[in-house]
Amino acid sequence: DGGITQSPKYLFRKEGQNVTLSCEQNLNHDAMYWYRQDPGQGLRLIYYSQIVNDFQKGDIAEGYSVSREKKESFPLTVTSAQKNPTAFYLCASRNGVNTEAFFGQGTRLTVV
Amino acid sequence: KQEVTQIPAALSVPEGENLVLNCSFTDSAIYNLQWFRQDPGKGLTSLLLIQSSQREQTSGRLNASLDKSSGRSTLYIAASQPGDSATYLCAPLNLGRAGTALIFGKGTTLSVSS
Predict the structure, then answer these.
(1) Which terminus of chain A has fewer Cβ atoms in its 10 Å neighbourhood, N or C?
(2) A6: closest chain B residue by CA
(3) pLDDT, tens digit (0-9, with 9 covering 90-100), for A68-109
(4) Do B89 and A105 touch (CB under 8 A)?
(5) How many CB atoms are closer than 10 A to CB A72?
């Protein structure tokens, strides 16, 4: 099936740890995105990548890092510098401005 | 910077009602606008994509309209069903500071009772 796969579905992080969220797509989309969703708030853009080997900061990039070494993969690392990482993280992709964006099923990250 | 507002924030209706969800955006220079639904704890599912040159787009019981000049879009749901219960999000696309990333409002949470 074509789509976007996020893993794991649930992730627990201890204080001071870095964790990496996986996002893989087999839609052959050029652009990929990471969003964060908190209760009662809209989705906020963390990072985006328009093409392989290129990515840009979104509105709330502090404490996060990404890489885009392959077209199908856009992993997000939540570093220890992110002071409030507990949230629902969503990955999306699209191919061109005139087409739909598609989302993965999300990863819920909790700090323990 | 694009800002998106969705009204109402929450809506409860009995099954069978027709309803309208509203979306307004401050920057009318959009390429298109996409409507999504989100079930609790899940990702976003695309419902409709309406291009800036279009006035309406339909899919089954859903109809989205777009008035780009006034910065408004509406999602009309006909003959609502309990399975329509979800949060509905609209997202206009502007090109510029965030590439092709969508900007979202907080959504409208719909509850349809049987």
Answers:
(1) N
(2) B43
(3) 999 999 999 999 999 899 999 999 999 988 899 999 999 999
(4) no
(5) 17
